[in-house]
Specification:
Layout: H1 2-15, H2 18-70, H3 80-92, E1 96-101, E2 106-109, H4 122-128, E3 133-137, E4 142-154, E5 165-178, H5 180-228, H6 244-294, H7 300-331, E6 339-343, H8 344-361, E7 365-370, E8 375-379, H9 380-396, E9 403-410, E10 414-421, H10 443-449, H11 455-465, E11 469-475, E12 479-487
Length: 492
């Protein structure tokens, strides 16, 4: 059962493929014009043949109509000459000739079935009024033509005494001619057109198969190249420059591949850094503990000093673990934000009040400038992390007697938090890595001030969870500025 379902899905997918669609387009592009040309030629031939047949018959009927008057045939139908001409016309075109006098009485019928009867039809009446008619009955296969039998007659013109001549219709010739010969010719042409159509169809089919394979070949090369790298990442970029589309696809894939390579390298580096960062405090604790154990007589002062060092290393280990847990929690796509309406000015003041004692130890001034009162829908805990991490970094990586400026502003859609310092700055080559986990610009200085290398990664994750953005500008040796933009109203 599953095999049948899978086979059906493969069949559907095969017709959804680019190759199948190119094949179908070529077939339709070739076959439809052939069919249209075939029927166009046949219709044009039929129209032309009927027109020529009608013109020929009308010419001959007009000649016979003149003879009818000369032999007074409308009154006396015994003329062998006229009868021979009428029969010859009827036999030549496999048709029928009916002659009607001015009283609408049939005086001659080549079929000998209607003579003496009265015929009043729309075509006959129009003909008596001087209108020649010719109609083609495609269904029954004949052409019907009405021709007036006209005689010039003299009439009095009153006071002038002149006698001008005018045409007087004495009768009507109703001629029906068969179009069987035209139909036979069309049938022959149709058979030949069908044979030609089949040959062209076969040629188009072969052409479609070859061309669709050629056109899709570059995309197959793209697929093969992608399949080749499934076993592992490769430094070699894919290049298929056949089409603009393949160039775009390959460029996009190469960018994704490079990003995946960076992510994989970052993951490996992250695992190595986590192992190193967690191992370092434990190693320090073990060294201190072994030192205490190996010394026979340890003074109380030395014992307290060692225990304080051990406690610091444990606190450091605990901080790293807490930061890792916070980062992992933010990485989960299902992580929920506890959204509430918060006074950002008040929240910032509270955080800065808590951090100013740390800044005063290094004689660093922390300034808060609020352009306007800001209230926003945010997660207060995560917003606290954002502000705390940015201001703590600005203090820790600042110069002695430096300054930190926190600016808060808003427009109709976003509020902006800007944290600037006069610190050591960030080298240009390090800016693209600054949000990576455990990345440090100055590792030795970071160890001295107790950084874990996770603060900016946590900050960026919290900003993105709020649908916001964070930007960095820095000049090495002069200072760094972080600008955070977060919507005033949270959009889930």
């Amino acid at each position: 059962m599953w095999d049948k379902i899978k086979a059906g899905q493969m069949g559907v997918l095969s017709w959804r493929s680019l190759k199948a669609r190119i094949f179908l387009i070529i077939i339709l592009t070739g076959v439809i014009p052939c069919i249209m040309i075939k029927y166009g030629i046949l219709d044009n031939y039929e129209e032309r043949a009927v027109s020529l047949r009608t013109s020929d018959v009308q010419t001959q009927v007009k000649i016979i109509a003149d003879h009818l008057l000369n032999y007074n045939y409308l009154q006396e139908t015994s003329s062998e000459v006229i009868n021979a001409e009428i029969d010859q016309l009827s036999n030549l075109y496999d048709g029928r000739v009916i002659i009607i006098n001015s009283n609408f009485k049939i005086v001659k019928d080549t079929y000998d079935i209607s003579e003496g009867r009265t015929m009043i039809s729309e075509e006959v009446i129009k003909c008596f009024k001087g209108q020649n008619t010719a109609s083609y009955d495609e269904k029954n296969g004949y052409i019907e033509i009405t021709t007036p039998i006209m005689q010039q007659a003299s009439v009095s013109d009153g006071e002038k005494g002149t006698k001008p001549e005018e045409d007087v219709i004495k009768g009507v010739m109703l001629t029906s001619v068969s179009t069987d010969s035209i139909a036979v010719t069309m049938e022959i042409l149709g058979r030949k057109a069908n044979v030609l159509e089949i040959l062209i169809g076969i040629a188009i089919l072969c052409f479609a198969v070859v061309l669709s394979n050629i056109l899709v070949r570059p995309f197959n090369r793209v697929t093969d190249a992608i399949n080749e790298i499934q076993e592992g990442y490769t430094e070699e970029l894919i290049s298929v420059p056949d089409y603009v589309e393949t160039v775009h696809i390959v460029d996009a894939f190469n960018q994704v591949l490079a990003r995946m390579k960076r992510l994989d390298d970052s993951r490996q580096e992250f695992v190595a850094n986590v192992s190193h960062e967690l191992k370092t405090p434990i190693t320090s604790v073990k060294v201190l503990a072994d030192s205490l154990r190996d010394q026979g007589d340890v003074s109380v002062e030395l014992y307290k000093e060692f225990m304080e060092d051990i406690a610091e290393e444990i606190d450091r280990e605990n901080k790293i673990i807490n930061d890792l847990l916070a980062l992992v929690k933010m990485d989960k796509t299902a992580a929920d934000l506890n959204i509430s309406v918060v006074d950002i000015n008040e929240l910032t003041e509270i955080i800065l009040k808590r951090l100013r004692p740390i800044a005063r130890k290094r004689d660093i001034e922390v300034v808060f400038e609020s352009i306007r009162q800001v209230t926003a829908e945010i997660d207060e805990v995560k917003m606290t992390l954002i502000i705390t991490n940015l201001v703590e970094n600005a203090i820790k990586y600042n110069k002695e007697q430096g300054s930190v400026k926190v600016l808060l502003d808003a427009d109709h859609q976003f509020f902006v938090l800007q944290v600037s310092d006069t610190g050591i700055g960030i080298p240009e080559e390090a800016m693209e890595h600054i949000y990576e986990r455990f990345y440090r610009v100055d590792k030795s200085h970071s160890r001295e001030i107790g950084g874990t290398g996770l603060g900016l990664a946590i900050t960026r994750s919290a900003v993105l969870m709020h649908r916001g953005s964070i930007k960095l500008t820095s000049v090495e040796g002069e200072g760094t500025t972080f600008v955070v933009r977060i919507p005033l109203n949270y959009i889930a």
